[in-house]
Amino acid sequence: MTTESTLVDAALRSWKLGADRISKFFAEQTEEQLQRELAPGRNRLIYILGHLTAVNDAMLPLLGFGPRLHPAWDDIFVKNPDGTAVKVPSGEEVQRAWKEVDAALQTHFAALTPAQWIEKHASVSVDDFAREPHRNRFSVLLSRIGHMQQHLGQAVLAEPRK
Amino acid sequence: MTTESTLVDAALRSWKLGADRISKFFAEQTEEQLQRELAPGRNRLIYILGHLTAVNDAMLPLLGFGPRLHPAWDDIFVKNPDGTAVKVPSGEEVQRAWKEVDAALQTHFAALTPAQWIEKHASVSVDDFAREPHRNRFSVLLSRIGHMQQHLGQAVLAEPRK
User: Shortest Cα distance from B90 to chain A (angstroms)?
Assistant: First the structure.
């Protein structure tokens, strides 16, 4: 492997490690446990997984991979706080969507060359990108890895204290 | 910038973003607030910042930059849970150490070439590294960025609900 492909490989391993920890943590929760709040007045676990799914789903168009799988979920899990949506998908639906989105992303990730990783993402103009070349696909990847870790760190706090 | 240096630059920006968010969050806490638990029976904020400082401090020898600045802190903030140490440094001491460690790390980070980032870290043998070239400095960097995000996600939950 070249230096650049080794660097990309490290980030893709980091993504997979984080996503797999999330899959494992949530797969172990019952439907009832998914309805539990992190703390009184805080988000429920199902909201956190829906939020992670919606934010990652938005990476499909942002990285130029294609349309979102669940465009309607932004309203439920990103734009509005927990407890305000009239109808929230079931735990089973959210778990399935999480896995579908992650599988789609990882397939697209694996197909990019290092040179494609440092191309601009879809939310920055050509002019802005010329001035700010750090607004590339790779930065989005790293940012979303951090986002997953941040919310996983919170989700594990909902576990009963041993 | 070359592809490889753009990839490294993205990760260093991600580090700086995460570390700066932590500095800002903790700088806004009073000594009293630092003693607050995340939730009953959970870690105090001061323990989280001490933990992040100790784990990042250990990157100095792990990445070949030199000895640790606070070797004794592993016992207080990593090997033992919160509430067990006889004497814990004050909030002011922990805040100062956090900044010193981060400044030292960022200075060393900036001096590495992309080829040096994919060299082995100090905890893997030459033989193991030949088989597992992903056990490199860059992977340690990404892993610790995730570690910071995970604990920052938890720390913000200690903020009173607005």
Answer: 25
Q: How far is A27 from chain B (nearest CA, A)?
A: 19
DSSP string, B69-118: S-TTHHIIIIIS-TT--SS---HHHHHHHHHHHHHHHHHHHHH--HHHHT
Helix (H, G, I), strand (E, B) or coil at A44: strand
Q: Do B18 and A151 touch (CB under 8 A)?
A: no
pLDDT in tens, A42-88: 899 999 999 999 999 999 999 999 999 999 999 999 999 998 888 88
Cα–chain-centroid distance for residue B21? 12
Both tokens assigned to B113: 């070439």
Q: Is B52:B70 a contact under the CB 8 Å cutoff?
A: no
Residue B66 three-state SS: coil
Q: Which of B7, B138, B146 sits opposite A118 (nearest CB)?
A: B7
Of A14, A117, A149, the CB nearest to B150: A149
